[in-house]
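# step 3/5: fold
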Amino acid sequence: MPENYPSEEIKKLWPNNTPSISNIQKYVEKYKEDTIVIKYGGNVLIDREVFNNFILDIQILNGLGLSIVVVHGGGPRIKRELEKSKIESKFINGLRVTDQKIINIVEKVLIEFNRDIVESLNNKGSEAIQVNSKKSNVINVVPENKELGFVGMPKSINIEIIKDLIRNKKIPVVAPLGLDKKNQVYNINGDTAAGAIAKSLKSRRLLLMTNVEGVLDKEKKLITEISSEKTIELIKDQTISGGMIPKINTCLDAVSNGVRGVVIMDGRKPHSILNEIFSDSGAGTLIR
């Protein structure tokens, strides 16, 4: 690497309360041949300060030459828009029942948010590209089940579109929307979409940013690293329960299918991405 690495621009951008910039070279070497998929979701979507920290982290990773794919959710924004339209949501196993009226609103909200992330990154000098049901769709879906309506499960990923963007140093920003063989749009759970993309890329890391610290033990203390076997035990003894189970199942599926490690991390904490990538202690729970 050049002597003036990292660049003066990265040094200026580097935030406080993150690992020392003098140590980042070894971590860049660690990840430089691999892809990192980052799912930005949960209630962290609403807070603009958290959003701005997230944008800065992605800008820095891109500026250091790392290959990043961003997948975002949109639940809180969708909820807000449906409430404005006085549409009541019904849920089955945590998934929103989605009829034609709702899918139109969901698609509109997710594409707007997709554009917001891309424009925010591009305004900072990165080159991010919208990937959604209207532009460069990469997720082909089948219906999850009839009762849920237009909620889809990824059937296949058009991974060449994503790889091509990465090769050209661009940041694909993917909305959790997909099309079926008739080009009908479907909403997809954000974690599921991110997991499917990470598996297709055989990514080094899948980071699931959310509004919880990570996986907690019986004493409510953070578990920093855990094997998939131990994770299954924690589901059986109900240490892991409720809304965390689908997230954990995404993690287990990913690490069983070529993803080296999945991290569940608290996206509300400033620069949690930089703390995860550029330190040995990481941020949140690493499932291998």
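# step 4/5: annotate
The CA atoms of residues 143 and 152 lie 4 Å apart.
# step 5/5: archive (pending)
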